[in-house]
Amino acid sequence: KNIVLVKSGQTSASVSPSGQLDFGSKDTTLSAWIKTKAGGTIISKAATAGIWVRNGKTFFVRGGRLGYDVGWVGQVSGGPRVNDGKWHHVAASRKRSGQVTLYVDGKSVGGGGLASRDDAGHIVRLGYTATDFMPAFNGEMDEVRVFKRVLSAKEIAGLAAGKGPEDSAAHWSFDAVKGTAVTNLKGGGYDGTNRGAKSVTGKTGQALQFNGNAQVMIAGKGKVKVAAPKDPSANEPVVAAAVLGGSGLWDLADGANLRLRIPAANKALKLQVLIWKGKRGEIGEFEKAVAAVKDAGDPPNLLALTTGGPAKWEETVETSIQSGLATGPYATDTFLLPDNNPWKSWMRLGGFDFFKDNKRAAVCTWQGDVWIVSGLSQPKGKLTWRRI
After folding, report:
1. From CA 158, how far away is CA 156, in angstroms rounded?
2. Using the 8-state DSSP alphabet, how is residue 47 labeled?
3. What's the pLDDT tens digit per position in 92-136?
4. In 161, 186, 271, 344, which residue has its Cα 20 to 30 A from 88's Cα atom?
5. pTM of the full structure
6. In the beta sheet, which residues pair with residue 29?
7. Cβ distance 90 to 80 under 8 Å?
């Protein structure tokens, strides 16, 4: 089935690899203002989730120095240390041939050849690369630009002086961040979704403060939406989903499964996930349902659902305890199982754990039935089994 993500007015849509900025087959220049005492990823283009992979690209600060790495190809780094807690302008130009040149505060500080194509499944992020390579950025970032050409040394010096060219394909100033939306001031797509970065006073206007666990995911170039057919009977079946609240991320990497990835956070997260299946032409009904749930306000109190309700199986079953002989170094008692029970539950036990009172235990069967057995502290007598 096809998958549709319905926007809820909050953070609901994933970032698709389609239409992404090209860091491989075309000339590119990356430009940003950073302030950090640690370092980490400034901007990357890598897999949608998981580990560092071949042909991934990341522009970063490591060991205090600026660098650019291409997965399974190599890396270049150099220049003065920029992890001094002061604002620095950093840039990296890359020719389609792979020649990379690094700049700090308007001056060239090194480079090298890193020839590599782009991977069609990769996406652009600010502040994050992968789970196992190049830490997430820890510091402040402002005025990030991506140019679809190699800027001259004079033009990059102009950017470092607060001037410079205005023909970037993407420009994220962070001055008007609303909720999770990070707008590309140049329009035409490449908008960002903020996952945990905080708005603070920047080099000019506002900046984003990254805590080593945040990122901004950059969407691809905008596409013209095609209206669904009016005849519902002609529509293909779809599964639709929306998330309300929190900062969940839809992952459609394999094109067949819908996964909600929730980034780690220091605070508790409360969200609602709505899932619907039907015909594409009827998707409007689900959108109305999403809007209704959103307008209803706060989600239900889930704590009320943790106290339990009326027993589903009120009847109990009794079995006996067969005490073993205590003439040796240890004795073995046998607790008879309720094989003859009203539900014909097959008593093949797989899990057994005592409660704190040591008089009761929770017992699970291979089929998934759960029982509470009481009377375990008695040397002899009867056990009471209640299916829950």
Report:
1. 5
2. E
3. 999 999 999 999 999 999 999 999 999 988 999 999 999 999 999
4. 186
5. 0.59
6. 93, 147
7. no
Indicate the SS3 state at residue 283.
helix
Q: Which helix (H) or strand (E) holds 274?
A: strand 272-279
CA distance 344 to 217: 53
Question: Within 13 Å, how many C-alpha atoms sit on residue 376's CB side?
Answer: 17
Beta carbons within 8 Å of 156's beta carbon, 6+ residues apart: 29, 31, 91, 93, 103, 106, 164
pLDDT digits (tens, 9 = 90+) for 4-16: 555 444 433 356 6
Q: Which residues of the chain have pLDDT under 70?
A: 1-16, 222-235, 246-249, 252-256
List the one residue out of 174, 295, 282 whose CA is nearest residue 244. 295
Which of 324-360 are b and which e, b meaning 16 or more Cβ less than 10 Å from the residue's Cβ? eeeeeeeeeeeeebbeebeeebebeeeeeeeeeeeeb
Q: Measure Cα distances from 318 to 104, 226, 339, 379 in Å.
A: 79, 65, 11, 16
pLDDT (0 to 100) of residue 13: 37
Structural domain spans, the chain: 2-8+228-305, 28-218, 316-387
Q: Give the list of residues 6+ apart from residue 387 with CB closer than 8 angstroms, or none.
A: 313, 341, 343, 345, 369, 370, 371
Please state, for a pLDDT cut of 70, what percent of the chain lies above it. Answer: 90
Please tell me the distance from the alpha carbon of residue 225 to that of residue 345, in angstroms, as a whole number: 54
Tens-digit pLDDT profile for residues 231-259? 554 567 888 888 887 655 677 666 667 78
- 293 burial type by CB count under 10 A (0-12 exposed, 13-18 middle, 19+ buried): middle
Average pLDDT, the chain: 88
What's the number of CA atoms in the CB half-sphere (13 Å) around residue 228? 16
Q: How far apart are CA 249 and CA 12, in angstroms?
A: 7
pLDDT at 262: 78
CATH 2.60.40.10 applies to domain 28-218:
no
The three-point CA angle 167-171-177 to 5° equals: 155
Nearest to 373 by CA among 381, 359, 365: 359
> How, if at all, do strands 237-244 and 2-5 pair?
parallel
